[in-house]
Amino acid sequence: LRALEISYNHITGTLPISVGNLSASLYELSAEGCRIRGTIPNEISNLSGLVRLNLYKNDLSGSILSTIKGLQKLQGLYVGYNKLRGSIPDDLSQLPNLSDLYLEANQLSGSLPACLWNISSLRYINLSSNKLFSRIPASFGNLKDLLAFRTFRSLVSLESLDLSRNNLSGLIPKSLDKLMYLKHFNVSYNKLHGEIPSGGPFKNFISQSFLPNEALCGTTQFGVRPCKTNFVDRLKTLRKVVIISVSSVISLVALVLMYVLLWIRCRKSKRPPIEIDLQPVVEHRRITYQEILEATKGFEESNLLGNGSFGSVYKGILSDGMVVAIKVFKLQQERALKSFHVECDTIRNVRHRNLIKIVTSCSNPEFKALILEYMPNVSLEKWLHSHSCALDITQRLDIMIDLACALDYLHHEYGLGGSVSTSCDVYSYEIILMETFTRKKLTDEMFEG
Is the keyword Chloroplast assigned to this protein (predicted)? Predict the structure, then answer.
């Protein structure tokens, strides 16, 4: 025997104990709409192969048996519209394949058992028209918990939940809006309060799912009063908006003012071209290769300040005690000689307080060098990115003003104009400005995206 279907017959009396003697391979027992009374016999748990038990719309009394846990293959339990009493047993959680649970229109009491949310295959739940009381557990629809703790993973596939006509109280958990497969939801005729979730499947629910819970609030589609916005929350939100807006305006104004100040300072400090032409020719001192060799102690590595594309820079002390920086060109490089002549022509014609002064040059067929004023404070990069050095905002602003003036003097198109250069070692001024005030290199992760 595989199935026993006796629904909607005029069968009276009770379920006999001998029902447990039916075939262990019986997968369906259906006696819906009969007049069977009495209790469900314990022996029914002997039907270990039972998949579907339908005792809907009878006069059954007593409680839901704890021995039902023996029906390990049970997928559908339909005992609605009877006179069952007591609480929903925790043993239901031991039915690993249960997907349909219909217990509506009985006289069940007690709280919603937490064990229900442990049933991994549960899809349809109808507990309406009973005497259940408690709060709807917040963990019920918490997908974070569902993903983290597999004991709750069942609710991901939940499609129907009917808890109407009970004495449930408290809030409708907002986490329920994450149950994306939920198609039917009914909590009407309870004592719930607070805001109805509006996201996820709740966008498709209507007022009949929530009436007449007068303490509920939400959007107009639910037929309830609007929720009052918390004054403190509104005040916090407004405060954040004001702070962000004011900060943005102040930052923008500060940048504009600083830019204007830099431009004015540079305009004032620039010399007209006619003044340069009228400057007397400066007499540069003569320095021999031997003097350079002695000043650098034979180009000792301890005096090396840095290396560039076409040369190396050494620190040197001349015979009169003057400290200088000596740029020695690598003549074996293809364009080193041209670079030497270009730099000589350029430096010969520039006069600006923010540019390193040229002391002299040393040139013969086998050796080319420029002798420059020594800057003891090393490079701006060291001051910006070294933990041992620190510049306050005023010092950084002064540096940027001087740098802007020098860039504008040398390269009108690359300085305050902001044009991009690929043919010389000149940064766009805005990039230098950003790196100086953030103390971060352009390769830093804060500039990504």
Answer: no
Binding positions for ATP are 338
Q: What residue spans of 270-414 are helical by DSSP H?
A: 273-278, 289-295, 336-349, 380-385, 393-410
Q: For the chain, give every residue range classified as CATH 3.30.200.20.
A: 276-373
Binding residues: 338
Q: pTM score, two decimals?
A: 0.47
Superfamily of domain 3-222: Ribonuclease Inhibitor (3.80.10.10)
- What is the Cβ-side half-sphere exposure of residue 444, based on CA atoms within 13 angstroms? 10
CATH 3.30.200.20 fits 276-373, yes or no: yes
Tell me the C-alpha to C-alpha distance, in Å, between residue 253 and each of 248, 256, 394.
9, 5, 17
Closest by Cα among 122, 117, 100, 119 to 51: 100
CB contact set of 427 (below 8 Å; sequence gap of 6+): none
Q: According to CATH, where is 3.80.10.10 located in the chain?
A: 3-222
User: How many whole angstroms separate alpha carbon 407 and alpha carbon 429?
Assistant: 8
pLDDT digits (tens, 9 = 90+) for 354-369: 677 777 888 888 888 8
**Cα–Cα distance, 18 to 6 (Å, whole number):** 16
- Only one residue has tokens 């390193």, namely 356
Instruction: Please say whether the beta carbons of 400 and 433 come within 8 A.
Output: yes
Count of CB atoms situated within 10 Å of the CB of 380: 16
Long-range contacts of 392-395 (CB under 8 A, 24+ apart): 393/437
Question: Per residue in 170-211, pLDDT tens?
Answer: 888 877 777 778 888 888 888 888 889 888 888 888 888 888
